[in-house]
Design goal:
The protein has 5 helices and 3 strands; from the N terminus they run H-H-H-H-E-E-E-H. By secondary structure, the chain is α+β, with helices and mostly antiparallel strands. It has 2 domains: 45 residues; 38 residues, no CATH class. Helix 1 crosses helix 3. The longest helix has 14 residues. It comes from Thalassomonas viridans.
Amino acid sequence: MRTYRNPAQWRTLIEAQAESGLTITQYCQQQGCSTNAFYAQRAKLFGKQAQDSKLIKATLTQQVEVSCQELNRVTLTVGNITLSLPGSTPPAYVIEVIRGLA
């Protein structure tokens, strides 16, 4: 049976997939939606940004050290500041933290 989702529901679904750590196929199966509908709605709502969402153009402005010495932890060191995050931290959040440090 088809489920109707309004644009706000699709936006929430798409953002949740990005933070889930699942592939789009896995996430769509879990949520009961088709991958074709997911991709179409993502393109409609996010346009070109959706196509480039997995790739980030980075410019090295300073030396940053990233280490995973402790199991299931990610440590970012910029200058004299060190930030340690759980390994379960959603990738989207880590990206926002790195952007905030720039």
